[in-house]
């Protein structure tokens, strides 16, 4: 069964936020070799639009959030399930305390120091 990927982010009034998320989606597409559908809790395209657009019977929802906040646990899940229309939906964990997150934070720390 082929899985579609839906990357969910919060949204922002800052246009640079959308450029960053779209850049991450493009890099993820290169990694997985297929289109990544992006949806926002507060922005366009919406969570619902992204899930509806994702093809196939299986959708993997990947939250681009740090933790399992109420947005991830409640809002994203509710909005996805309302429009899943019989598709099987699997929810990935948010970034959290994954060791690679620590590596990125360390790298940003070194960047700030000019190293």
UniProtKB/TrEMBL annotation:
<dbReference type="InterPro" id="IPR050963">
    <property type="entry name" value="Sirohydro_Cobaltochel/CbiX"/>
</dbReference>
<dbReference type="GO" id="GO:0046872">
    <property type="term" value="F:metal ion binding"/>
</dbReference>
<keyword id="KW-0479">Metal-binding</keyword>
<dbReference type="GO" id="GO:0016829">
    <property type="term" value="F:lyase activity"/>
</dbReference>
<dbReference type="Pfam" id="PF01903">
    <property type="entry name" value="CbiX"/>
</dbReference>
<keyword id="KW-0456">Lyase</keyword>
<protein>
    <submittedName>
        <fullName>Cobalamin (Vitamin B12) biosynthesis CbiX protein</fullName>
    </submittedName>
</protein>
<dbReference type="InterPro" id="IPR002762">
    <property type="entry name" value="CbiX-like"/>
</dbReference>
């Amino acid at each position: 069964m082929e899985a579609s990927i839906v990357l969910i982010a919060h949204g922002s009034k800052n246009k640079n936020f959308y450029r960053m998320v779209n850049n991450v989606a493009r890099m993820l597409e290169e990694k997985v070799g297929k289109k990544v559908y992006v949806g926002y809790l507060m922005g366009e395209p919406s969570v619902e639009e992204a899930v509806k657009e994702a093809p196939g019977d299986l959708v993997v929802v990947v939250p681009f959030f740090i933790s399992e906040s109420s947005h991830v646990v409640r809002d994203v899940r509710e909005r996805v399930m309302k429009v899943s229309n019989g598709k099987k939906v699997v929810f990935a964990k948010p970034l959290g305390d994954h060791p690679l997150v620590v590596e990125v934070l360390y790298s940003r720390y070194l960047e700030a120091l000019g190293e």
